[in-house]
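dumping this here before i forget
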Amino acid sequence: MFNIKNSCWLLALIALSEAGYTNENSPVSVKKINQLITQHFEVLDIPPAVSVGQQKEGGIVVWLGSSKRSGIVAALQNYTSESSRLVIDGRNLLYSYSASGMGGGFQNDAIITAAQGTIGSGPYVLINYANAYSTTPEGEDITPPINNKNDITCSETCLGGWYIPNLGEFKVMFKSLCETPYALDSGEFEGNKIYYWTSTQSLTGQGLIKVVHIPANHNCDISQLEVSDIEQDYTLPTGTSRARFVRQFG
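structure:
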């Protein structure tokens, strides 16, 4: 695998050599070196670095890996329709583990889907919507109708692979989106707290999952988030349930 960090000087030497520069030549400007290296990066098809807050691959970048060329994007909008419960029946959903860390939510979603089995294959379950969610590269929701979670398809013109973030990913997403037009909803809806689902299993009991309430006066402070345990098949009051799907890129 090509390692960008350890290969920049090699690329510079190759670029200068192919451009005809030697020790006997006049000093080469930094600008010229950067131009030559950029040309070689393009030949090697290395994606350009991106920044948090930039729109990319159907969402907005909320986290980047060390290379600044891969990371996680969040959907441009919440998912609210018919998302009042995570699964149909959570009584027997005891996961083998609950993956933490960036990207862990993708593993959690796969475990939840597998554990649910044939239970709740209809459209009124959040995990099924997460599996089916798809967007255009610009972020428009083009999720197809869901008849069964095993009948989900995504055409070449759409982006799939979205999932419910784990608690750690949610906190990073909250912080990154806080001061953008895509900020998460906070406060209450008709006197009830608004909750966001995560894919992090609670350690206090079987079938419990972490949900997050964002208070109205949070000031973009992660420590202000209110995290609660809730049964995965518990139906939250109408209008109070939210999900913000994320996907990996790079």
